[in-house]
């Protein structure tokens, strides 16, 4: 075996951007995250102007020029409904049963990975439809409840809730879920979208790309945070404990879920969009008022501890509250996030495929070199 030298003094300083912060790794027409102004622009629309949009309308916007024939929202709704039904009718009971020992997001990973990559022009529609159907099926199976077939005539949000609850739900809940799906549909080059684009750049296909994206979304620093937000509220328990609980958590070096963001240095605009949608559902249990108290205290203590690093409320804080209010279990929250973000993932995959350039950055080798080898 060739002898290796002991580790040399690093000739170059370590990589200064291990998290690739500020590195521009793709050109996109899909969305822009303005970190200092607290803006999210989706294909020319500021997020604040998208309030009241149906998810299907946002899909039509994101998919324009990426889906043959550029279907409008009503046509997308029709094809999405048909795709939900098809997914449901072809979902293998044995495959669903194979998810029993997995967490809901691992179950979704298994089901998404089972879809073939062979090319059809409707794959983006199928991916969005399948994520909603799978998320609902996983939820009901874990509760030991019979699956409910989709209603192709319903909106995607209303149908997801009907499949979850086993019966249609009040319109205001469907509106709240619609607002959520629209709000989280796309968000620049976040970790999961970047993962999707890297995989798409190898020409692996749409389902491989979005399955990889889901794997990235699963982590608690990305899409896995909203369940723990509710754990935090439960653990705090009551009004008198808020300040002490947060101080103790920060003293232990723990991160408060639902706060901080890689790009936003001001409040995440999605937090406000979700808070507004949540407000329309009322606050019958006082959960929202309590959460606002926790938010105020958390922001105050984070500001004291990190005076030069603004740490603000992110999307996950109000995601937790809105998804709880419309009836999802907290361990399903990441799957519902995936149901919304699938809109952006599929559009980014198609955009990357059009660019057709393999993403292959370099790494900097910091290990030992063989003796007497000049490079
Ligand atoms: N609670 C307490 N301290 C925090 C938090 C937090 N939520 N977020 C960051 N910090 C602290 C860090 O400990 C670090 O402190 P230090 O300089 O003393 O070591 C400092 O703030 C800077 O943190 P970074 O790790 O550099 O921030 P980064 O940009 O890498 O992290 C992230 C962003 C991962 C979102 C982080 O804020 C976090 O872990 N938040 C909690 C998890 C969460 O809410 N995730 C959802 C994000 S939104 C989304 O992905 C959809």
Key structural traits:
375 residues, mainly alpha, three-stranded antiparallel beta sheet, 15 helices, 3 strands, disordered N terminus, binds acetyl coenzyme *A
Structure description:
The protein is mainly α and 375 residues long. The longest helix has 23 residues, at 333-355. The protein has helices at residues 55-63, 73-90, 93-97, 104-113, 123-142, 156-165, 171-183, 191-201, 206-217, 226-236, 242-251, 269-279, 287-305, 315-325, 333-355; strands at residues 31-34, 39-42, 45-46.
Explain the layout of strands and helices:
Blueprint (H helix, E strand, L loop, with lengths): L30 E4 L4 E4 L2 E2 L8 H9 L9 H18 L2 H5 L6 H10 L9 H20 L13 H10 L5 H13 L7 H11 L4 H12 L8 H11 L5 H10 L17 H11 L7 H19 L9 H11 L7 H23 L20
Antiparallel strand pairs: 1-2, 2-3
Bound molecules: acetyl coenzyme *A.
Q: Count of helical segments?
A: 15
Helix content: 40-55%
Category by helix and strand content? mainly alpha
Largest sheet: 3 strands, antiparallel
State Rg.
22 Å
Low-confidence stretches: 1-12
In short:
With 375 residues, the chain is mostly helical. It has helices spanning 55-63, 73-90, 93-97, 104-113, 123-142, 156-165, 171-183, 191-201, 206-217, 226-236, 242-251, 269-279, 287-305, 315-325, 333-355; strands at 31-34, 39-42, 45-46.
């Amino acid at each position: 075996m060739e002898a290796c030298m002991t580790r040399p003094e690093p000739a170059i300083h370590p990589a200064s951007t291990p998290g690739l912060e500020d590195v521009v790794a793709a050109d996109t027409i899909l969305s822009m995250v303005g970190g200092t102004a607290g803006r999210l622009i989706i294909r020319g629309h500021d997020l604040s102007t998208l309030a009241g949009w149906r998810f299907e309308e946002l899909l039509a916007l994101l998919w324009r020029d990426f889906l043959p024939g550029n279907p409008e929202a009503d046509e997308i709704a029709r094809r999405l409904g048909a795709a939900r039904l098809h997914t449901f009718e072809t979902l293998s009971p044995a495959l669903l049963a194979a998810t029993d020992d997995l967490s809901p997001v691992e179950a979704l990973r298994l089901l998404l990975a089972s879809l073939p990559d062979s090319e059809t022009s409707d794959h983006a529609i199928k991916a969005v439809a399948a994520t909603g159907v799978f998320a609902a099926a996983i939820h009901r199976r874990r509760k030991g409840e019979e699956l409910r077939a989709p209603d192709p005539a319903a909106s995607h949000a209303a149908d997801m809730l009907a499949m979850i609850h086993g019966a249609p739900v009040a319109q205001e809940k469907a509106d709240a879920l619609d607002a959520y799906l629209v709000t989280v549909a796309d968000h620049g080059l976040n970790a999961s979208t970047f993962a999707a684009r890297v995989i798409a750049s190898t020409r692996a296909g749409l389902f491989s790309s979005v399955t990889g994206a889901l794997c990235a979304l699963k982590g608690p620093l990305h899409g896995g945070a909203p369940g723990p937000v509710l754990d935090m509220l439960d653990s705090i328990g009551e009004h008198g404990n808020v300040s002490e609980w947060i101080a103790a958590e920060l003293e232990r070096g723990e991160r408060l879920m639902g706060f901080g963001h890689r790009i936003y240095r001001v409040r995440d605009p999605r937090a406000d969009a979700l808070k507004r949608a949540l407000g329309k559902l009322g606050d019958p249990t006082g959960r929202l008022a309590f959460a606002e108290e926790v938010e105020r205290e958390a922001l105050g203590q984070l500001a004291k501890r990190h005076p030069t690093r603004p740490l603000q409320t992110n999307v996950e804080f109000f995601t937790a509250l809105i998804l709880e209010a419309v009836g999802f279990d907290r361990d399903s929250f990441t799957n519902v996030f995936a149901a919304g973000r699938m809109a952006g993932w599929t559009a980014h995959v198609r955009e990357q495929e059009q660019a057709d350039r393999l993403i292959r950055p370099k790494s900097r080798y910091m290990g030992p070199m063989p003796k007497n080898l000049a490079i």
